[in-house]
Structure formats: structure tokens, C-alpha cells
Amino acid sequence: MQRLKTRAQFQAVLAGATVARTAHFALHRCALDLASGAPPLFASDDVWLGAMVPKRWARRAVTRNAIKRQIYTVSAAPGVGLPRAAHVVRLRAGFDRKEFVSATSDKLKAAVRAELQQLLARAARSSAPASAPPPASSSS
Asked: Which pTM value belongs to this model?
């Protein structure tokens, strides 16, 4: 799994489709276009992943870093099965500071991990091909 690093990579993925959402996260996906003549943003045909945790939703740096670590850890776990494409996991709502007082508490990490697993499971269901295409009706 490769990590997104440049602003252009993040912008390209965010311009793509949102494939899954949960209460706090959204997953964006962009197909890799390695065949075009333009200089490639993504050097290899692999799974690419980036994490966006804005200050707006996580004010403290320790909270942002803890959430990013959870994103990369959960995504790299065996059995996640992200397709070969570029992905960005974006925090889209803040966690309640009254409920999660400490930024590095086990309670917050467990809540983030559970929601990320749910997000990735939804994304896997949406990217799974249909079992059988519907029969085409022929009218003569």
C-alpha cells in the first residue's frame, strides 16, 4: 500500500466519487489512470491511501495524529481488500470532546477503529461486482 503525499494526488482523489460514508468519515476513490500520456500522479498500479483530518474537526494535533494512525493501521489490516485505486479517508465530523476527553484514550481509539472498519466494509460492498447481470430483453 502506497501513501498519498502531494497536494495534486489528494485533489485528484477528492475530485473522484465518494464511495462510502459513516457518521464521522467519508471514503473517496479515484481510478488510477496510468495509460494516459500525461505525467502520472500515481507511479504504480497499487492501492494508494491518504488521510485527511482537518483542524476544524480535530483541534489538537495529538488527536489528528492519533486518528491518522488509526486510519493507516485499519486500512493496512489483512482482509480489508481495497481495490487497486487511490483512496482518501476524510474526517467529516468531530468526535464529542465531552465523551472523549483525552485525545489518546483507548475509548476514542476503539470508536475510531470500529467506525473505520464499518466504512471500509461499506466500501468493499459497493465495489463488489454484482453476482449476475440482469438478462437483456430482446424485442424483435
From this structure: 0.80
